[in-house]
Amino acid sequence: MQVVTGAEMQASEKEAFAEVGISPLVVMENAGSRIVEVLKDKYGPLAGKRVHILAGTGNNGGDGLVVARMLLTLGARIKVYLVGNQEKLSSENRTNLQILRNLGGDIQVIEAGKLGKLRFSLGLADLIIDAIFGTGFSGQIEGKLESVLSLVNETKCPLVAIDCPTGVNASTGEVQGAALRADLTINLGFLKVGCILYPGRAYAGENLVVDLGFPLKHQGSRYVLSDEALSWLPPREPWSHKGSFGHTLVIAGSQVYAGAASLSAQAVLRGGGGMVTLAIPQGIYARFAPDEVILTPVSQTPAGTIGVPSLQELLALMEGKDVLAIGPGLTRSPEVMQVVQECLRKWNGPAVIDADALGALDADFLQSVPAERRSRWILTPHPGEMASLVGSEARQVDAKRLHVAQDFAEKWQVVVALKGAPTIVSEAKTTFINSSGNVGMATAGSGDVLTGLVAALLSQGLDSLQAAALAVYIHGKAGDLKGQNGQRGLRAGDILQGIQEILQ
After folding, report:
1. CATH number of 3-220: 1.10.1520.10, 3.40.50.2020, 3.40.50.10260, 3.10.20.30?
2. How confident is the model at residue 254 (pLDDT cuts 50, 70, 90)?
3. I need a surface site. Which of 8, 71, 82, 215 has the fewest CB within 10 A?
């Protein structure tokens, strides 16, 4: 599903008006009709129900006025509250307002001194529709409107937003002050970025997308990951053998973080990889029970990590492998960083670079590796690790996660999977926003499982972008599956077990 910013949506509509010759009034009629169909489907017969519509002065308000008229003809008891300076109505808004007046619609202008009356009236509503700003809002809600939004949020009835909840920036998801908390947001034409990125996503409630009855063009390549991504899974022929699905080398673990290595290696197999060799410091070898993983101890430093003594052993292990996954639990000592850089310099295939290995990716090192080879790298940082890569702070990365991931991927020609809520997967031309996952997955080891899952999909032949995006979606979906009985207390091992159930 394609995702656009508010500005991109407005540009697409403007282009359609010019090329197709369709008028904004017709678009409003189409939008109103689609919205009413959704309302009937979600909230049952509307005849006799009290539906209150908050209508702004722009075309989003015009959409709300069309909805009010159509609900009136269905027998609903509509009440329209006009919000904003009525001298600044768009021409389409003014036209639909006059039509509604001609039909005898109940229309009131919200007045600052009569909010008590508004509170009482809203308390009687069966359904409230937000048609104040839509995609046209940025900045912060202030003054009388802030009080109005507070009253609406206090009501107990369902709230439906048209295109984007008031107070949410449709292009970024930012909420700088007050905003309406919708139960349902009906996105017109395309899903809006602000409705899928937090905090806006938390205000949007359920997102639905409806068409506008004519083709909309958009040149961007930004998409939401959904079950459609599962179709990317390559077929597994009946005559396949373990070699058909690749051999992954995982370089991971240390005296302190043995579990990270185990989770990553197990995830390669759970994700459908054919074989996995796990290279670990020899001091933790005895902590691993025998299983399907090919466990290979290598020389270690006095601190219990890989280091210069293990470099040649690791380079030898890289021979004949299809995929490299490196980083979980390695620690970030200068010696470890040196070994990571040497391994990546010698590696020519697809690689998943996670956790501590990300600390080796300074600008000088990245510039020293040919872009053609970097294009096969997948980086999987969390916001703190991403902040180190771009010289920022984690909170700033989180606030601009879409743009940070896109910009870094384009600059260095790598695939970035910026973990978080939601995870962003991007390369120079295409970006995916994940829709799966839950807060229960904010637990130690969850990222290590993702590392192995990405490697598993690479080993089965997916390209770097598809492998990263599909792994992120499956990882989140496995977390959702295992979190059905409670997200608090969800463990990385639970997510690991859920992968096979999603892939069956």
Report:
1. 3.40.50.10260
2. very high
3. 215
